[in-house]
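During the no-cost extension, the postdoctoral fellow (Dr. R.K.) reprocessed legacy sequence entries with the updated structure-token encoder. One reprocessed record is reproduced below for audit purposes.
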Amino acid sequence: MKQIIFLITCFAIISTNAMAQDNRANNIDNSNIALQGYSAVSYADLNLAQKGVKEFKSEYQKIVYYFTSAEQKATFDRNPTKYLPQYGGFCAFGTYAGAKFRVDPNKFITKDGKYYLFLNNIEFDAKQLWLDENNHKQLVSTADSNWIKLGKTHN
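Re-encoded structure tokens follow.
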């Protein structure tokens, strides 16, 4: 427990210097493109980080999602809520720690039909910290509570 508190503290200090808190509910850029253009269907169904293309895009709740094929777009369009990233696409470990941080779209895990994205930079690998805790359900429970405290709802 002391180790996780230490890690969270380090995470918050390092990340605060590198990335500002974000008041938006979704981790999107100014063009409202989700997941930095990566396919939500690829994450959820294929357990792959695949960059989508603008020829296959959908809009859901004013956010644009890109896909790798017409089939992926159709899959998303049939049930978009199934494919939304946890915590609006912000770092799952950051949400666990009570803050929102941008992510590396190649750092993610898929579990129980959901996918979780993580911060990764030269100083910090949040995905590895999550995996090192080896208690996914407890981490998700705390992150879910913190996401609500951050003023947003989660998927």
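The CA atoms of residues 84 and 155 lie 7 Å apart. Residues 13-23 have pLDDT under 50 and may be disordered. The remaining legacy entries will be reprocessed before the final report is submitted.
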